[in-house]
Design a protein that fits this description.
Shape: rod-shaped
Helix content: under 10%
Number of strands: 35
Radius of gyration: 45 Å
CATH topology of the largest domain: Hypothetical Protein Tm1070, Chain: A
CATH architecture of the largest domain: Sandwich
Length: 522
């Protein structure tokens, strides 16, 4: 209670006593004590809400900058990697053969034949990891024939590979030779037209067979695999590689379908790791990057042509950057998927050129997503509960109010339009009454989206007698704030710069006008 009200009877009695003692006036027999109306202001809410409160910081939503004044929200993903082993590229598992070769049985006379290298490969040099050569000889003669097969291009234990066979009279013989650990070097005298073949020099001998005697030979290759190879290896798909990665965005997923980003980027790196200095080129064919939400909905990253099958070639390394100028990356990240699915077909040597490949080679594909805080945001809600400290004495005055109102002052320093709802409840959180107001966004530089000044709005809510009576019993005010970028649903939307220290200051107080009777002050 105002001290002036409490002192009023004393002052009044003093004035009347002085006048009576002085004898200057006659006192009326029925003194009427004065009455008047006064205003009472009761503070209800005084809170500040920052964007750090409204957009909660998550694992993938960080705050960057040298100070809180210049820090901004950044959505940054982990780096997602996918690797493809290229060892299949140097596995020439197809068989090749050279059959029915006539080998003369004449001392000091040899025959040169050629065994095709599987899959049409042309090798300058190679190291065998595995593989076999199978040789079959048929001797139609009535005498044993000895056969020596030399491989000028294959080195085993430091020497040219040689295989001996003894074919019985009117019989057959066969031998299979493993090639693991052998090396291959194209013989210097091998002609250009035979570079895709393994050269064999075969001679046969006998004790007394006549001139013109011969044996027939067939040679087969199988399961060729190399530790390294230099030359020409034909184009080959390593197969479609698919992998899923979890984003684990937590509560940030709540902004799916609500946020539209202006600046977003996908950095993509593909590297062909090889100890060789002249690796083969690679075609990354039909790369698909698909975002998948928990509800099963999907959105594919698309290039500027609208295709979700992204294709490009690399020779050593390749860096790609997808922005809003050449893709739908902003929509893709705004989609806020819970899982990223990567799939691509890696094709070796698409240009059919020469090079070197080893079994240590690999293709590593990595990517990460990022965006800054320039965005358009559809309605996002924050709810806060604050206590109202209305004294018993003020409560009685509010109940006797002739009129009542609630004054709501908002200083909006956030570049988002705001809708404020205040719900007054009693001590048991039972609803008493509520009201809603809207407030314009902070003033911004339309070119940069930066806040230039807060926008202040003052609203007065007139209460009827029933609402005023309920206000007297209010214990809590539940404040709900919806924020949204101006014209967020328009195309293009109004984009704004989101900074965590931007805030909305909400000050609420109740005002009542009640009648004062000095008899109540005695």
């Amino acid at each position: 209670m105002n001290s002036n009200y409490r002192n009023f009877p004393i002052v009044l009695v003093s004035i009347l006593l002085s006048l009576w003692i002085g004898g200057c006036i006659d006192l009326p027999t029925n003194l009427k004590v004065p009455q008047w109306d006064v205003d009472l202001n009761v503070p209800l809410v005084n809170r500040s809400y920052t964007l750090n409160d409204i957009i909660k910081e998550q694992k993938y939503i960080s705050i960057q900058g040298t100070s809180s004044a210049d820090s901004i929200y950044v959505l940054q993903s982990d780096t997602y990697s996918q690797s493809a082993d290229v060892s299949n590229f140097i596995q020439l598992n197809a068989t090749s053969s050279s059959t029915g070769n006539i080998i003369p049985v004449v001392n000091s006379v040899s025959a040169t034949i050629y065994l095709p290298i599987p899959k049409g490969a042309i090798l300058d040099n190679a190291i065998f990891k595995s593989g076999f050569l199978s040789l079959y000889a048929a001797n139609p003669n009535p005498e044993v024939v000895d056969i020596l097969i030399a491989f000028p291009g294959i080195i085993q234990n430091g020497s040219e590979l040689k295989i001996s066979m003894t074919v019985p009279a009117s019989g057959q013989d066969s031998v299979q030779t493993p090639l693991a650990g052998c090396t291959y070097l194209l013989p210097a005298n091998q002609t250009t037209q035979n570079q895709g073949y393994i050269q064999l020099v075969i001679s046969g001998s006998s004790i007394s067979l006549p001139l013109g005697s011969f044996v027939t030979m067939s040679i087969y290759s199988s399961n060729f695999s190399f530790s390294s190879a230099t030359g020409y290896l034909p184009e080959q798909s390593l197969g479609v590689k698919s992998q899923q990665f979890s984003l684990n965005l937590g509560d940030a997923q709540n902004y799916g379908n609500k946020a539209s980003l202006k600046y977003a980027e996908l950095d993509m790196d593909v590297k062909y790791y090889s100890p060789a200095s002249n690796p083969f080129g690679i075609l990354v064919d039909s790369l698909n990057i698909i975002g998948v939400r928990n509800d099963g909905s999907q959105l594919a990253l698309k290039d500027s042509t609208g295709s979700s099958n992204i294709t490009f070639t690399i020779n050593g390394t390749k860096h790609l950057s997808f922005t809003q100028d050449n893709s739908n990356i902003t929509s893709f990240i705004s989609f806020l998927p819970s899982t990223i699915l990567l799939s691509a077909d890696y094709i070796m040597n698409p240009s059919n050129s020469t090079g070197t490949v080893t079994n240590q080679d690999s293709v590593v594909f990595s990517t990460n997503f990022s965006t800054s805080s320039i965005l358009a945001l559809q309605k996002t809600l924050i709810t806060d509960t604050t206590s109202i400290n209305i004294t018993n004495q003020d409560s009685l005055k509010i109940q006797d109010a002739r009129s009542a109102y609630i004054n709501v002052n908002v200083q909006n320093g956030i570049p988002l339009n705001a809708w404020l709802t205040i719900n007054f409840v009693d001590g048991g959180y039972n609803h008493l009454f509520s009201d809603s107001l809207s407030f314009l966004a902070a003033n911004i530089n339309t070119a940069t989206g930066e806040v230039t000044s807060a926008f202040t709005t003052n609203n007065v809510i007139q209460l009827d007698s029933a609402q005023a009576a309920k206000l007297a019993g209010a214990h809590y005010a539940i404040v709900s704030i919806n924020v949204q970028t101006n014209d967020a649903s328009s195309s293009p939307a109004q984009y704004v710069a989101i900074r965590p220290n931007d805030s909305i200051q909400v000050t609420v107080y109740g005002g009542v006008n009640y009648h004062v009777n000095t008899n109540d002050l005695k």
